[in-house]
Amino acid sequence: MVIELVRKVFLGKGTYCSVSLVVHKHDNKKYALKVLKLHENTSEREKDNALAEIRYLASVQHPNVICYKAAFIDEPSSSLCLVMEYANSGDLAQRIKYLRENDQMF
Fold first, then answer.
1. Straight-line distance from the first to the last Cα atom of the chain, in angstroms, rounded to the nearest whole number
2. Contacts of 106 (CB under 8 A, 6+ apart)
3. Which of 4, 9, 89, 95 could bond 21 through an S-S bridge, CB–CB 3.0 to 4.6 Å?
4. Model confidence over 9-51: pLDDT tens digits?
5. Residue range 41-66: average pLDDT?
6. Of the candidates 23, 18, 19, which has an alpha carbon nearest to the alpha carbon of residue 5?
7. Distance CA 27, CA 10 (A)
8. Residues 6 or more apart in contact with residue 13 via CB below 8 angstroms
């Protein structure tokens, strides 16, 4: 899967990684690129958690779960990269917050 950044759109950051919007070079589909920077001091637990997430996402196929597309190591930046389906309507936390603010239920 060949990808390129779409104007370096930053989507968010977690404890161990950052997420950006990317686009497939050939079909222009949007994906989320999760990047885990691997430092010399990256713990084995952090690496194990990242690999477990990749295995889990690769094994699950459900319409309500973000779909795994690819994973690779970016050698120049020493990063583990995970390409996933892009949730253009936001994530579950955003949806819950919106519904609460508007006194609505699922």
1. 35
2. 99
3. 9
4. 888 898 878 999 988 888 888 999 989 888 888 788 887 888 8
5. 85
6. 23
7. 21
8. 19
**How many angstroms separate the CA atoms of 95 and 32, rounded?**
18
Does the predicted model carry a pTM greater than 0.85?
Answer: no
SS3 of the chain:
CCEEEEEEEEEEECCCCEEEEEEECCCCCEEEEEEEECCCCCCHHHHHHHHHHHHHHHHCCCCCCCCEEEEEEECCCCEEEEEEECCCCCCHHHHHHHHHHCCCCC
How many C-beta neighbours within 10 Å does residue 64 have?
6
The side-by-side arrangement of strands in the sheet containing 18-24 is 3-13, 18-24, 30-37, 79-85, 68-74
In angstroms, the CA 95 to CA 79 distance is 30
